[in-house]
Design a protein that fits this description.
257 residues; mainly beta; UDP N-Acetylglucosamine Acyltransferase, domain 1; nine-stranded mixed β-sheet; six-stranded parallel β-sheet; 0% helix; 25% strand; binds coenzyme A
Length: 257
């Protein structure tokens, strides 16, 4: 199923009108509910579900097997690793409807959620934060925080480019990879960038509709962990494209950005 604006694999189901931005690619066996909003230039890997009340910003990468339920809002440039889990009910019961009480979750601009991480609802993952693989986020994550573990605790800070920042007590930090500089605003407030944001790696498609997810909520202050160091070595693994595919399943030129 394709339109001039976006491309979706024929195995994907899009229920009725949904707002899907130009240049977005939706791979095998996805389900986008009527009314869902997906910004321009996104990639949804295999078996991704987007509920009617979920919002996906622009240029997001959602890897295989991720469900974005009602109340989940991803800002622009968010990466969600394979099989990461979002939730929208804090105390679920099969026999008691909680549909009136969905609890929202926000992920800020440029943030990344690692593979198999679980984001408990009612939390905000701050802009450019990095949630480690397998972490369980139960409290807000400060902007640029690198959190890991169950429950997730802050290990250090991470640059906009994704590289952990050197661990040092100084209030000013500089990225060893890209040179971006930051001021530590506080454990809960995260980092404030002292240099201009780097341009987005994938420019929005021409005529891209502006999806404008709400600013991150800050309902609960983050609980900061031991402050254990994160090494400066960047993860070297190459990011795999979602939805491993054969030659035959490449998108056609129709709908490509
Ligand atoms: C968190 C992460 C960024 C840390 O990478 P790093 O800076 O290279 O860190 P290191 O591997 O040097 O590990 C530093 C410490 O954190 C621990 N650690 C690393 N990853 C962890 C994780 N996911 N959960 C808990 N602890 C973790 C290490 O065991 C190590 O602890 P130690 O000092 O006691 O030995 C990385 O491990 C990670 O989880 N990346 C996400 C990968 C992912 O999900 N990608 C999705 C796309 S496929």
């Amino acid at each position: 199923m394709s339109s001039a604006r976006y491309w979706a694999h024929p195995s994907t189901v899009i229920d009725g009108p949904a707002r899907i931005g130009p240049g977005t690619k939706i791979w095998h066996f996805c389900h986008v509910m009527r009314g869902a909003r997906v910004g321009a230039g996104c990639v949804l890997g295999q078996n991704v579900f987007v509920a009617a009340g979920a919002v996906v910003g622009e240029r997001c990468r959602i890897q295989n097997n991720v469900s974005l339920y009602d109340g989940v809002t991803l800002a622009n440039d968010v990466f969600v690793g394979p099989s990461a889990v979002f939730t929208n009910v804090l105390t679920p019961r099969a026999a008691v409807s909680r549909k009136h009480a969905f609890v929202p979750t926000s992920v800020g601009r440029g943030a990344s959620i690692g593979a198999n991480a679980t984001i408990v609802c009612g939390t905000t993952v701050g802009a450019h934060a990095l949630v480690a693989a397998g972490a369980v986020v139960t409290r807000d994550v400060a902007p640029h925080a690198l959190v890991a573990g169950v429950p997730a605790r802050r290990l250090g800070w991470v640059c906009r480019c994704g590289v952990p920042l050197p661990r040092q007590p100084a209030r000013l930090l500089a990225c060893t990879a890209c040179g971006d500089r930051y001021r530590v605003a506080g454990a809960g407030a995260g980092l404030v960038a002292l240099s201009d944001p780097a341009p987005a790696t994938t420019p929005p498609a021409r005529g891209a509709a502006r999806a404008a997810p709400p600013a991150p909520r800050r309902a609960r202050p983050p609980r900061i962990g031991s402050g254990r160091p994160a090494t400066a070595a960047p993860p070297s693994a190459r990011r795999r494209r979602p939805g491993s595919r054969s030659r035959g399943s490449r998108p056609t030129s129709a709908g490509r950005p």
